[in-house]
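Course assignment 3, question 2. Fill in each field.
Student: A.L.
Task: Predict the tertiary structure for the chain below.
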Amino acid sequence: MAHDRRSATTVIDAPAEAIFAVLADPAKHAAVDGTGSVREPLDPEPLSAAGQIFRMSMYHPGHPDGTYKMANRVQVFDPPNTISWEPGNEAGDGSVNFPGWFWCYDLTPAGPSKTTVTLTWPD
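Answer field:
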């Protein structure tokens, strides 16, 4: 399924390595999620390579159960420049369906201790 893309860019007063470390740690995702949907990691080990799958507990008031789980597969792991993952839904047999959504963070140094962060996602 093809998606149009949206992106947002901001400058953060931190080096790219520090920002990448937060993005690569599922235990920190809830703290930086602006929606309130991301909860705790079900697979708490840090992200380390493309292809790695990590699961997160999620919440949305419109979801039939309120809480649900997402399985995410790392697409790009290029420290400290780019990290992206595609969220999917785990079936009862353990397989995961990835419908084509993604979250991609591109980090570009903007001085000795600042980083331009661009988040790209499907529209």
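Instructor remarks: The beta strands are 5-12, 38-41, 53-59, 67-78, 82-90, 96-97, 103-109, 115-122. The chain is about 10% helix and 45% strand.
Grade: pending
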